[in-house]
Every structure is written in structure tokens, then in C-alpha cells.
Fold this sequence. Notes:
Blueprint: E1 11-12, E2 15-16, H1 17-28, H2 33-47, E3 55-59, H3 65-72, E4 82-84, E5 91-96, E6 101-107, H4 116-122, H5 133-143, E7 148-154, E8 168-170, E9 177-179, H6 188-192
Parallel strand pairs: 3-4
Antiparallel strand pairs: 1-2, 3-5, 5-6, 6-7, 8-9
This protein binds zinc ion.
Amino acid sequence: MPMKSLPSEITICGHTFDKYIEMIKTFHGHVAPGVVIGGFMVDLACRNLPQGEYFDAICETRSCLPDAIQLLTPCTVGNGWLRIIDLGRFALSLFEKYTGKGVRVYVDSQNLDDWPELRTFFFKLKPKKEHDSEALMGEINQAHTSIFGVQKVMVNINSIQSKHHDAFAVCPLCGEGYPENDGEICLGCQGKAPYLYCEAQSSQED
Ligand code: ZN
């Protein structure tokens, strides 16, 4: 009878499982199950890429999955090659940036029936601290890519063009640069900044 695959036999975009766990610790702060699962998803997407040289990423959730994409591909939020379009689905697409042709990997909820801990995790059936994390990690490794679905997609490139600000102005209130289209004063001074206070500090080392 074949042995269940052990974590050490799994590779994630060329990294061993243990190496990927180390990368998660460094980047994400702790070994979040969602980033581990996300690594398998990115790996599966990369194995199913259509032809092409330059790929961008779309992530359909803000939690965990963006970090797997940023760890394992050149696509980051900062360089603009990763777009987070928060549809609330634990899914990602990698697509050829000029044609939009790509691959989408998602969690197939029908495949979760065999995996009670994974099901509990994805449907948030228990508060986080009540999760049996050892059992969950065991299921993540055993299920590996079997809980995912893979689809071919054609991304509507026009719909995801990032908003280019053509002109900047200096805000008369805060004195900082801002996109002119936002109005007479910047969005921060229009009350959209999240700070309870924001005042001068005498020394940056205080
Ligand atoms: Zn301002």
C-alpha cells in the first residue's frame, strides 16, 4: 500500500515544504494555514500556466493568499503585478499580462467533505483558537492539491487597469502631494484618514 505523501516530498514552486514553512514564518509572522494552502494553490497554478512570458496575478481574497503569491511569484501588491480583487473567494488567477489568458485555482467546496478540519477552517465553523491546528496541518498535507479546482480563464484586461493619476497637486491644508482629481484638498484632509490625531513630532527618535 502506498504511503501517504509526507510533507518532505512535496515541493512548492521548487522549494521543499520545510523551506516554504520557514519563508512563511519570516514573511507572514506565523505559519498560517491559509498561506500553506495558498502555496499549494500557487504551485498548481504555475504548473498549469498557458504559454507566455509575463504573468500577472489576481487574488480574490485579502486574507493569507496574497502572501503566498508574493512569496512564490514576482507579483507583489507594490509592483502592481498582483491585484487583490476582494470577491471573498479563496482563489487566485495567474494570467498572461497582454492577452489576459490564464489559469484560475480555487477551493472546490465539494472536495472538502472528506476533510473535516479543512471544511471547518474554510467555512469558519469554529473560532480560530478552537481549531485543532495539528489535525488541520495534517489534512492540508494529505489533501495537498486534491481540494482545488483548476479553470482556464480569460481576464478582462480593461476591467483591471489600475487607475492612473495624471496630475498631482499640493494640498493647501496638509501641504502633501495628492492626485488632483480627488478635489480641492486631499482625501486625507477630506476626513478619510484613519488617524485620531496626526501632529508634528520634534524628533523622529522620540
Ligand atoms: Zn491634505
